[in-house]
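User: I'll paste a sequence; please echo it back and then give the predicted structure.

Assistant: Echoing your sequence first, then the prediction.
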Amino acid sequence: PAPTSTRVSKALRAIVLQHTGISLNASKMELVKRRFLPRLRALALQDFSQYVEYLGANFDTEGVSFCNAITTNLTSFFRENHHFELVSTMLRALLARRDRKPQRVRLWSAGCSAGQEAYSLAITLRESFPDLDRLDIRILATDLDENCLNTARRGIYPVKEFEKMHAPLVHRYFSEVASPGKTMPGPCFKAGDALKSLITFNKLNLMHAWPMKGPFDFILCRNVFIYFDKDTQLQVLRKFSALQPPGAYLCLGHSENIPNPPSLGYQMTGKTSYKRV
């Protein structure tokens, strides 16, 4: 493609911000260009100015590919494990305070990527509550990237992704399967129904209207805010707060924080962990 002008760069970054909430400064343009080059080739466009024009006229059809291209998806099973330990501790205390049956508990993995976080939550629930099936506990897992969600729904991952997980856990909840294709060569593990039955995977753009009414007892939104500007972070945090009752928890990524937790109804309780008060 031809060199990208400052005007086109600004226009492309503005479209990214408008539709994904991801704030990119000028220094990120090389990254942006690398992400979108496959779309230019697929659409037989000559340069990014043509792509900007194409987006303006065809976002209804190009929007999914556009959002899939710009999102970053890096995750692993039990990443930042202290949050999963908190889930177990918090839910035990929560269920001890509630006496109605069946217990209703809702967890949300916001920005679930390819599903490892949601499956880690499901394993945590199964391991923490042997009588889980008598409780009304569900996990909502959402992401902007449709490709990642398809991977999450299949629940198939390369064996190497399980190297840091305790072998008994792997064999209890996953079964070994053959490679599903060239994108995932070699042996793989597939999540079983004991995990899948707890999770609903849905597409959700945090910048758009949220169909969920809550309440959510636990929200994990980790390594999502690092791509948002401050105004967008506050906008999303206010919506999280409105969906969580007192005593619920919110966990952010290891490099993220809430600048003034009390102003949003939260109290910091640990490393990147906040309690709704």
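The beta strands are 104-110, 136-143, 156-158, 174-177, 188-191, 199-203, 218-221, 249-252, 266-270, 273-276. The longest strand covers residues 136-143.
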